Amino acid sequence: MVSPLWKRLMWLVVIYAGSVLALGVVATLFRLMMTAAGMKSH
Questions:
Q1: Which tens digits make up the pLDDT trace of 6-42?
Q2: What is the DSSP string of 1-42?
Q3: Handedness of CA 14, 17, 20, 21 (dihedral sign)
Q4: Which residues make Cβ contacts (< 8 Å) with residue 23, sequence separation at least 6?
Q5: Alpha carbon of 9 to those of 1, 18, 21, 33: distances in Å?
Q6: Dihedral angle, C-alpha 12, 14, 16, 21, nearest 10 °
Q7: Is the pTM of this model over 0.85?
Q8: Number of C-alpha atoms within 13 angstroms, CB side, residue 24?
Q9: CA 39, CA 22: separation in Å to the nearest integer?
């Protein structure tokens, strides 16, 4: 049973948005950890 195209596109968008969000959270946490360690970027 093949799901309709819009449903598959929705899943693609949801997964893409989720991965981008996760990357952003990880990057923010990493930056906070670096700042806390005293390694400021500027």
A1: 999 999 999 999 999 999 999 999 999 988 888 766 5
A2: -PPPHHHHHHHHHHHHHHHHHHHHHHHHHHHHHHHHTT----
A3: negative
A4: none
A5: 16, 14, 18, 36
A6: 180
A7: no
A8: 6
A9: 23
